[in-house]
Design brief:
single chain; mainly alpha; Rossmann fold; Serine Threonine Protein Phosphatase 5, Tetratricopeptide repeat; 21 helices
Length: about 450
Amino acid sequence: MNNKVFLSYSWKDCQIAMRLYDDLSRSNVPIWRDQIDGDPTADFEKEFLRKIDECDYFIMLDSPNYREKSTWCYTEVKRCLENIERRNAPRIIVCILVEDGPWRRKHKNERQKQVFEQINKLKYQKLYYSGYDDENVYDKTLNFICELLETSYEKWDKIPTYQDFMDELNILHDETTSKILLDGYKHILNKDINGYPNVKESFLVWLDDCKNAGAPLFFPKWTYAVWLVNQDESYLKESEKLFYELTESYPEDPRGFRGYGSVSAAIANSYREENNMVRSTAYYKTAIQYLQKAEMLMELPKNRRHKDVCQFDVLTNIGKVFLITGNYAESLQYNNRAIEIMKKKRFFREVLIDDSFFLMKKMGFDTLVIIDWLKRLLLIYGVESLLYQLLGLCYIDTNEGTKARIALSKAYELCPSDENKDYLANAISRFCKNEKETEKPHTS
């Protein structure tokens, strides 16, 4: 897209502006924000007025701070309205950062009233700072903006770690220190991505920097613990210790309990591979205890913003532990709840479906019930090879050769793997002879 976008906001709303800027930049939107893209050698006022004159879209982060605390914001939006009158551009996207209320109808003077009353007539989008909430207010608005700008909204990973750190640093009220700590974390991520050998040492230095700056330490410790888990088994015990410290220091934050439960399950798996069933059983028990505690904490109002990003993984982890320990009914119960979230959010996890299929077969579900379950999933996920593969295997069980071949052919078409090829070949081999025997002879 070639549209130029100008981001107008109060510096007191810098945190949400940073989040929006990062999300739109990652979504390939050519957006201009003064503190990042501004030329440090240029005349500030002349530069931002020129950028408004050149832009095609003007995103306004409307808030009490925007209207009451900043003269720059008034200057920017006034210039935007003048351009609309002169050249019928840019288009304004008004995003309100707090609930609509009297603050949008109070004006400091007559000049501001004339300008902001024009803004009040425009349709606005909600962009509440809570971000990742149950109603997906933030994501809905980002999708709307990106569709308007003819691009796709590229979300953060399911755990918005970098964004969480930005929110934690808001307590410092010191943008310079916040930027230094954020840059430190970005530096670590870049080293990790590019395979540098001393990432752990960089993490430890960064942790000290956060501590010395008086920053909250949940995110730094949590991120370091997550990184350790994703290295190799030699770091599991160190990660376990960090997650346990988080559960003790932050007893109402579900992320610490989720991490401790997950790492306990990983340690249990390693003991299981060593046939140390006593320790393995003890760690699986701990994993269930802490994961269920995480699930409970997600229901607290203050944890709503973490619920969407954590609940699915917590449910699938509990389901997996119950599956490994042979508690099939409980495993399927948690899997079903995870699948409902998966359907609601419109993403797909093969391992979850595969595990649930195994559980239903293991528990003796009627094949027709499983077929109906797969068909309902196919109404949502009609391009997933795994669903057609499992459906084909069910039709083999019910001795419906034609349906089995159709389903398995579709699975192979969507994913031409050796596994799907073998399933299809076996189905053809199994049913071809029987169908030939029952075929009526051709008569002229």
